[in-house]
Automatic annotation (TrEMBL):
The lineage of its organism: Bacteria, Pseudomonadati, Pseudomonadota, Gammaproteobacteria, Lysobacterales. Homodimer. This is Glutamine--fructose-6-phosphate aminotransferase [isomerizing]. One of its GO terms (cellular component) is cytosol. Catalyzes the first step in hexosamine metabolism, converting fructose-6P into glucosamine-6P using glutamine as a nitrogen source.
Length: 366
């Protein structure tokens, strides 16, 4: 069942254009976003939402961090994102107008389930689950449910579940914005167009694999790596660092690039590879100046960007470019190169990619 692939992770990375196309096919039709996507009651539950609280673990939590930027910027609703195992033990403030969104590939993660139960015990009735496994525990305990169409994900490292979660969260954002009268027809048309192009843009990112293999072979000899991003791409830096740790066992940390001077810059020397997620978004110039700081300390950079950013290559700055900037959905496209980097670094180190040591696909214990 692996076909031409060596591991499920590699197969699942390459399945993303299909998984995204399937997911997108379910959320839009000729007239726009499909109505009642999150269940029959979605109008009643979502209509006068005044706050969003996202709860998740691991990669699903990073999907939530991306969504926060979208929900606040597009729907204009304050959004908090918590790691489920933290939320369930803190005295959170109940708010009847708050929508509680759990994100879980498996739908069985114990901490996320317990965080949901806790939110409900606090009196939150507006609950929505974004999940990849039908009829699993978390969606069963939620009022509204949205199932991503990633198909079975077998590798312990989450890949296609992540990018399809992002599409689900983007759709939720557009739905909330529409209910609040914040989505013009023109804007909606632009979002639909962006979604239609997404599988193709992800395929373009996958086509960069040979270039990424060359980088990964250099990473395989390292023991540490630093990942940087800003804004909506900061969670992609976090995801890149998690993927690398999880399957190659290289120690990796991610920081918002603006935080460099506040500590991590002290780690930078010629032995520390620095991965930068730097597409042509509104923070690009800021990222470029952060990069100069790394460069001045002798650090070697590996920059994932797009052609529109006009990033120059130099002795210390290696660049891989996707063909064009895709706008608001750029984090989805930029998830691909960091997945491939981790996969090929792990391959070069000979680790058990699909079943990394000490980890389980679904974490059903605390
Ligand atoms: O099934 P879930 O989405 O609830 O799982 C959450 C995390 O355990 C999961 O994303 C984990 O971090 C992955 N192994 C990351 O690749």
């Amino acid at each position: 069942e692996l076909g031409p692939y060596r591991h499920f992770m590699q197969k699942e990375i390459h399945e993303q254009p299909r998984a995204l196309a399937d997911t997108i096919e379910g959320v839009i039709d000729r007239n726009g976003f499909v109505p009642a996507l999150f269940g029959d009651a979605d109008g009643a539950v979502l209509r006068d939402v005044e706050a969003v609280q996202i709860l998740a673990c691991g990669t699903s939590y990073y999907a939530g961090l991306v969504a926060r930027y979208w929900i606040e910027a597009i729907a204009g609703i304050p959004c908090a994102v918590d790691i489920a195992s933290e939320y369930r033990y803190r005295a959170a403030v109940a708010n009847p107008k708050q929508l509680v969104v759990t994100i879980s590939q498996s739908g069985e993660t114990l901490d996320t389930m317990e965080a949901l139960k806790y939110a409900k015990a606090l009196g939150h009735e507006r609950t929505l689950s974004i999940c990849n496994v039908p009829e699993s525990a978390i969606p069963r305990a939620s009022r509204l449910v949205y199932y991503t169409r990633a198909g079975a994900e077998i590798g312990v490292a989450s890949t296609k579940a992540f990018t399809t979660q992002l599409v689900a969260l983007f759709t939720l954002t557009a739905t909330l914005a529409k209910l609040r009268g914040r989505l013009s027809d023109e804007q909606e048309a632009q979002y639909l167009e962006a979604l239609r192009h997404l599988p193709g843009s992800v395929q373009h990112a996958l086509n960069l694999e040979p270039q990424i293999v060359a980088w990964a072979e250099r990473f395989a000899a390292k023991e540490h790596a630093l990942f940087l991003g800003r804004g909506v791409h900061y969670p992609i830096a976090l995801e890149g660092a998690l993927k690398l740790k999880e399957i190659s066992y290289i120690h990796a940390e991610a920081y918002p690039a603006g935080e460099l001077k506040h500590g991590p810059l002290a780690l930078v020397d010629s032995a520390m590879p620095v991965v930068v997620i730097a597409p042509n978004d509104s923070l690009l110039e800021k990222v470029k100046s952060n990069i100069q700081e790394v460069r001045a300390r002798g650090g070697e950079m590996f920059v994932f960007t797009d052609l529109d950013s006009h990033f120059g290559e130099s002795e210390q700055v290696n660049v891989i470019r996707t063909p064009r900037h895709v706008g608001i959905l750029s984090p989805v496209v930029h998830a691909i190169p960091v997945q491939l980097l981790a996969y090929h670094a792990a391959l070069a180190r000979g680790t058990d990619v699909d079943k990394p040591r000490n980890l389980a696909k679904s974490v059903t214990v605390e």
